[in-house]
């Protein structure tokens, strides 16, 4: 991917794209009887908590947006007064955001209105909208009605526009180059940290965001990134023949997350590892063969399971989830987080982008992997957003 200039990036996410999103959100607000949304975002969990705020602003900041049914939205961030791509009214809010928000609500004469709060629920659950701000606003406006409106943004974000798909395709181009960088660098007698450094360097040189998530772990007994890779910093140890490298990383372009789950083996894998790899490849291929619009989340989830269950492996993370400005709906389920209840009867629609990542973990919890990349649901089936990626283990 040739690194795009700021002007070229803005030509992807245009004012027409802004107007499409704002219109869609306001139609949902009107249907729910809401006069305004208060949208919160922050840089938590690899900046995924910023997804709804960025969806409406096309700007990476943390803070709040006052998004009225009628009138211009206002963005409250760490600093105000700077130009942003889509929002003209930018004000400072830090450290007492509720004060600025209250002033704006009064300007809009919304003291007795119905106000929807975004990031009160959904997969992020209690990690969302700050309690201090909520208490301050409800005390300041006792005659207003505050209610959860998170679903308005979650539903809108699930179906991707051509512009959003293009951002994900550009991220995939960078992600494939990062995979190739690992293949070119990893070999016995090379420091583990050199491999990860080359991967990170490639992503940044290809124009990816600094927020790109990178989970990486290597060795003879290793878990996939979500289970063990995220807790490890760069490792200076010398790599050896037979080492396994597992990566789970985001090639994030303009906030859009092209996520890859890619394992590697330095030389021929052991039989135990080969059994794991064969199962995860079969699981992905089963699901790709089954994927079509109109099927339910539960039906697609079931397509992943036969080879994993037959071999007796453990699962803790989702077989797939939505991907865009964050990991998002639809989720296949989350065995390791049983309090999260997936909407298994939700039907898959064209324009949804799914990250396939079935986990395959040994019974002794010493070896495990995932495999996958972004998959677009189309009118007739699916399309991999990566040009050359295939569901396979890279043997170096």
Description:
Helix content is 35%, strand content 20%. It is of the alpha+beta class and 396 residues long. The protein folds into two domains: 6-158, Creatinase/prolidase N-terminal domain (Creatine Amidinohydrolase, Chain A, domain 1), CATH 3.40.350.10; 162-395, Creatine Amidinohydrolase (Alpha-Beta Complex), CATH 3.90.230. A six-stranded mixed sheet has the order 4-3-2-1-5-6, sandwiched between helices. A five-stranded antiparallel sheet has the order 11-10-12-15-16, with helices on both faces. α6 links the parallel β5 (114-118) and β6 (145-148). α8 packs antiparallel against α9 (192-205). The longest helix is centred in the middle third of the chain and has 24 residues, at 162-185. The two termini are 24 Å apart. The mean pLDDT is 93.
What is the H-and-E element order? HHEHHEEEHEHEHHHEEEHHEEEEEEEE
Please identify the structural class as seen in this structure. Answer: alpha+beta
Helical fraction equals 25-40%
What does the average pLDDT come to?
93
Distance between the termini: 24 Å
- Identify the CATH architecture of the largest domain: Alpha-Beta Complex
Strand percentage lies at 15-25%
Number of strands: 17
Number of helices: 11
How many strands, what sense, and barrel or not for the largest sheet? 6 strands, mixed
Q: Which regions have little confidence, pLDDT < 50, spanning 5+ residues? A: none
CATH T-level topology of the largest domain: Creatine Amidinohydrolase
The total number of structural domains is: 2
